[in-house]
Amino acid sequence: MQVAPTLKQKVAEAAAFIEGRLGGRRPAVGIVLGSGLGPLAEAIEDAVCIPFGEVPFMKTSTATSHVGRFVCGRLAGKCVLAMQGRLHGYEGNTPQEVAFPIWVMAQLGVPVLITTNAAGAINASYRVGDFCLMSDHINFTGRNPVAGTEPDELAFRFFSMADAYSPRLRQLAREVARREAVPLQEGVYLGLLGPSFETPAEIRAFRSWGADTVAMSVCEEVIAARHVGMEVLGISLVSNMACGIEGASPNDTEVLQVAAQREEDFRRLICGVVEGLPS
Ligand code: HPA
Question: Pocket of ligand 1, candidates 207, 241, 255, 257: which has the most ligand atoms within 8 Å of its Cβ, to mutate?
């Protein structure tokens, strides 16, 4: 009788599969490209592309604008492993399925994760088109990828989430934004399961908790990354004001349109950070 593989075995098998495709490339940075932000992957040179669906045990992306593949190659002088699109809980993925590619990156020896998304602004002083560094998060998805017994085989599960968003990488991002004249806010990100947008009452409640931005991704990835010791930077593009802020009622089309308009600044911000990372 065949025994089902453990999470640890699945992660190892997926990492070995990807490594076999990389032709000796050794990624120093993992990047998750969120809604509308996938075109950055086109700037990666000498690239190898691996569709998520070809990687053992990995789910595929079903969300609009999420291509659903790894792109590994050179960006701003470094070898990066980008996810052009991500996996969300709202697509029906379990927390561990969402976290899986992050654990695989760590298994490949990738020390740094830059995770990005489009988000709604709860903080009324933010403007659509601003970027926002995550200083911290409120995981309001009701889920945690490290729950259960198997993640404990990957790494100890009672780890600290203080300074989950690396102070030194945030400092680097601030310096790059100043140099490149890219508007960059910094605040607390609140993550939800989705896929429906929030009600105005929810947004008012989240504001009273100290949240500045809101979206439907990132928290589970960041928990997984910190679980296995990766250094994390989180950047949102403010694609809309959150529901009820200045009378806003967000929709998916608006999110993608703003991302398309902000593509150039996004590329400069990410490339500047990647270039400035210590080798
Ligand atoms: N709410 C939730 N998710 C989002 C939003 C929002 O306003 N904008 C982009 N993703």
Answer: 255
